[in-house]
Write a structure and sequence with these properties.
Elements: H1 22-28, H2 30-43, H3 45-52, E1 56-57, H4 58-65, H5 69-81, E2 85-90, E3 93-98, H6 100-105, H7 115-129, H8 132-138, H9 143-147, H10 154-158, H11 162-184, E4 194-198, H12 204-212, E5 217-222, H13 224-233, E6 242-246, E7 257-263, H14 271-284, E8 285-295, H15 306-318, H16 326-335, E9 339-344, E10 351-356
Parallel strand pairs: 4-5, 4-7, 5-6, 7-8
Antiparallel strand pairs: 1-3, 2-3, 8-10, 9-10
Helix pairs in contact: 2-7, 4-5, 7-11, 11-12
Length: 359
């Protein structure tokens, strides 16, 4: 029996403040937010509003994107609630326009658009995450359940069709357009004139290097079909200091360079495979040269950042790898023969770890 004046919760020992689980409800509904953004992008809502150059009604937008009026009204209202759209009232009617963030990052024509990254999240990652429970139970990625393809060869699964490969390359392109400058300038890389970008994909990070360091040349090393697609869609003749080298970096000879960049590469692989790859890099690297790892770094005690903890779950669902701490990457580099390892946090998504080969 509670003493007079003592407040009790709905059950013995439950504080009254915990009777409404606000944070848990937000987490439960997180996927609703994601899919609202994904669908608005897929339908082209933000592009239609950009092209109009003036606020539009739900009826205008529904007609332009070829969707039902009722569905469009609900989608636009939700996007306004998420502060991705601005609302304007005119003659009793609600009109919509893009917020500044939506205009910059959600329209396809923007140079820093996240549209392709969102497409990949919606049509690939989201489907893999349907099997997250299985991934945790089994300790392996879920390509077979999600897409019916074998996951024995990671990149055969990732690049299971030409369309999927181009989708992935667009994802990487959009990420480095936003984060690339921060990671290539985290350290002064000007002493390294000959750079090899292993798994350089669309060439977006290579372009950031040649922009930041006018004296350098960059060789993009990637699988033959990736190189061919990059030449066709991403890297033009105007990018004169960027060239290509076709191969599998686990099997084929690596070109000699002053600096090797492995951007979002090691987090795909087990420690053993990482050491194998870094040892190959060390053998090819010129004395006095180095290797730059670009990864999202976990705190040393594993306590965060939350984004990186979630990325590590995504590595479980999609790859053979994991996200790691700076010390864990330093240990992998040391095991492969690199010394004087340092790391820099950029304050953005991805950080930088630099190791040197003794001269």
């Amino acid at each position: 029996m509670a003493e007079s004046g003592e407040m009790m919760g709905p059950s013995e020992g439950t504080p009254a403040a915990d009777t409404f689980p606000k944070k848990i409800l937000e987490y439960m509904e997180g996927f609703l937010v994601s899919k609202t953004v994904f669908s608005a992008c897929e339908l082209g809502v933000f592009d239609v509003l950009l092209a109009a150059d003036h606020p539009l009604s739900a009826e205008d937008v529904s007609r332009a994107v070829g969707a039902s009026l009722d569905g469009t009204e609900r989608l636009l209202a939700a996007c306004a609630g998420l502060q991705l759209l601005n609302t304007h009232r005119q003659d009793g009617q609600v009109l919509y326009s893009n917020s500044e963030q939506a205009r910059v990052y959600l329209t396809r024509s923007s140079p820093v658009s996240l549209y392709h990254s969102i497409q990949y999240s919606s049509r690939t990652i989201y489907l893999c995450w349907h099997y997250l429970t299985d991934a945790v139970r089994e300790g392996r990625n879920q390509y077979e359940k999600a897409f019916g393809v074998s996951s024995n060869d990671l990149f055969q699964a990732l690049y299971r069709s030409d369309e999927e490969m181009v989708k992935f390359m667009h994802l990487m392109n959009s990420i480095w357009n936003i984060c690339g400058k921060d990671v290539v300038t985290a350290f002064d890389l000007s002493p390294f004139n000959v750079i090899c970008d292993l798994g350089g994909c669309s060439g977006a990070l290579a372009k950031q290097c040649t922009s930041a360091y006018p004296e350098c040349t960059v060789t993009i090393f990637d699988l033959p079909k990736v190189v061919q697609t990059s030449r066709e869609h991403f890297v033009t003749d105007a990018d004169g200091r960027i060239n290509f080298y076709e191969g599998d970096f686990f099997k084929d000879p690596l070109p000699e360079a002053d600096l090797y960049i492995l951007a979002r590469i090691l987090h795909d692989w087990t420690d053993e495979r990482c050491t194998e790859l870094l040892s190959r890099v060390n053998r090819a690297c010129k004395p006095g040269g180095g290797v730059l790892l670009v990864e999202a770094l976990l705190h040393e005690d594993g306590s965060g950042p939350l984004t990186v903890q979630l990325y590590s779950l995504n590595m479980l669902v999609q790859t053979e790898g994991r996200e790691r701490t700076a010390a864990q990457y330093a240990a992998l580099l040391a095991a492969a023969g690199f010394t004087a390892v340092r790391h820099r946090l950029t304050g953005k998504i991805y950080d930088a770890v630099l190791g040197r080969k003794e001269g």
